[in-house]
Amino acid sequence: MRERNVGKCSLFLLCLNVVSSVVMAAAPPTCPADTGSGCGSDSGEWDGEFFPGIPKIKYEGPSSKNPLSFKWYNAEEEVLGEKMKDWMRFSVAFWHTFRGTGADPFGAPTKSWPWEDGTNSLAMAKRRLRANFEFLEKLGVERWCFHDRDIAPEGKTLEETNANLDEVVALAKELQGDKFHLLWGTAQLFLQPRYMHGAATSSELGVYAYAAAQVKKAMEVTHHLGGENYVFWGGREGYQSLLNTDMERELNHMARFMEAAVAYKKKIGFNGTLLIEPKPQEPTKHQYDWDAATSANFLRKYGLIGEFKLNIECNHATLAGHSCHHELETARINGLLGNIDANSGDPQIGWDTDQFLMDVAEATLVMQTVIKNGGLAPGGFNFDAKLRRESTDRRRESTDIEDIFIAHIAGMDTLARGLRNAAKLIEEGSLNDLVRKRYQSFDSELGSAIESGKADFELLEKKALEWGEPKVPSGKQELAEMIFQSAL
Fold it and tell me: Where is the secretion signal located (predicted)?
């Protein structure tokens, strides 16, 4: 009897072990992606969830109180004949979302995600990349952007650096599949000390050549990943003092650099749009790509106007003393609006704070321009924005993972509200009518002659003498603001 019971017990334990093994094999890994979880594979690469407990974000409507849901952004909803997702073409910025540390000009880093091991190794780079694509999947965003040095570590030589980038890009290609797309790539030509005097505008020939090699490689990998655009942000292309600067020579060098980039783009068959990102002051006293108008003038002067468009960042507009709406309209009317870095800055702070855009009125103005532009494709809205330094807890070596989602959800909802409001203003028509009526005197025969370049000063003098002192009507600014506010 005892032997029989032992045999039954052994059989039961064997069956239980088999069932447990099957269940464990079938269940997806759900343990958190922290460095001490023991969830990594034998190769050291993470194969579990980076954001356990975070569901795929869904649209629940304006009445929802769920912070992990969209209240206004409904990707498939049509507005003015286009789906919301096609108006927006949202993208996540790898550098802020996965490389941001919470540091600012006056403080050390305050943030470290649980999957970080404190290194900048290739293994760590691949882990971050996997986190990026899980985040995109759960957020419901199809696009991402990166700087070359964000996704892969710099080696001891240029050859080693390029090999590191190739290895990470191979994984990115695999993780992108057919579902995700690269909105744009770029080269980081500002952080490394070799670029202390600039890259394309450096006074040192060796630095200029190194920068060209770095851009060449960055363009190649952007092309390999199917990038829709390639961005030039001249983070240190400017000067601190004209006493030791040959500004004309530096501008000429930058133009030659851009010409070479255009030639190489065509040589490798890259069909993406080349974008210049204007930014004033920071970090140099005077940036050569100060704002949209300055950048447009540079492109015209050097015959590059048909080869580039502009990537407008709202926070950069603030630093230039403009509104984001002004910069977007300047780019649009010059035929140069290519992409938008969706963020905002604090006008009371003198540096680039890269906050998520939360102002519905500003978002409405932004979307007015996007609609006038017929959309942004092949550009989009890239969230060049980061969590606040205070949204972190250094004591836990971590932060609330859900905050990354909440910030992006709020930014996406804000722009979706802006789109809805802009569409309402267009369909209602009062604001457009007000603007049209303000200039209706130019709809006359003489006005048409002026606008077509057929009215000379003699003719205009004759009319002025005939009509006498002109009557100047109200600009109706308060009424315009009333109509605009009524749509918010």
Answer: 1-21
> What is the set of domains in the chain, with CATH numbers?
78-402 (3.20.20.150), 432-487 (no CATH)
- Report the phi/psi class of residue 227: left, alpha or beta, with left for phi > 0 and alpha for psi in -120 to 50: beta
Longest CA–CA span in the chain (Å) reads 126
Angle at 388 between CA 122 and CA 152, to 5 degrees: 15
Beta bridge partners of 341: 313, 382
Residue at token pair 């009897």: 1
**Roughly how many angstroms between the first and final C-alpha of the chain, as a whole number?**
82
> How far, in Å, CA of 289 to CA of 320, rounded?
11
**In the structure encoding, which two tokens stand for residue 400, read together?**
């609330």
* pLDDT band with cut points at 50, 70 and 90 for residue 100: confident
- Measured CA to CA, the distance from residue 356 to residue 346 in angstroms comes to 11
User: CB-based contacts of 109: which residues, under 8 Å, 6+ apart?
Assistant: 101, 102, 103, 394
Helix (H) and strand (E) counts in the chain:
17, 14
Q: Which residues are annotated as catalytic?
A: 147
Nearest to 229 by CA among 129, 145, 288: 145
Neighbours of 71 (CB within 10 A): 20
The mean pLDDT of the chain is 89
Sequence-ordered strand ranges (E) for 273-344: 273-276, 286-287, 308-313, 337-341
Reported as a single tens digit per residue, the pLDDT across 11-65 is: 333 333 433 333 333 333 444 555 555 555 545 566 678 999 899 999 999 999 9
Q: With contact defined as beta carbons under 8 Å apart, do 57 and 405 qualify?
A: yes
Closest by Cα among 185, 182, 174, 120 to 146: 185
| Residue 211 contacts residue 257 (beta carbons within 8 Å) | yes
The secondary structure of 403-463 as a DSSP string is: HHHHHHHHHHHHHHHHHHHHHHHHHH-HHHHHHHHHTGGGGSHHHHHHHTT---HHHHHHH
Paired residues of 240 in beta bridges: none
Specify the higher pLDDT residue, 227 or 283.
227
Q: Specify whether the CB–CB gap between 181 and 133 falls below 8 A.
A: no
Q: How far is CA 114 from the centre of its chain?
A: 25
The Cα 133–Cα 46 span in angstroms is 13
**68 pLDDT higher than 70:** yes
Q: State the amino acid at position 377 in one-letter form.
A: A
pLDDT of residue 347: 80
Tell me, yes or no, if the pTM score tops 0.90: no
CA–CA separation, 337 vs 376, rounded Å?
A: 8
How many other CB atoms are there within 10 angstroms of residue 448's CB atom? 12
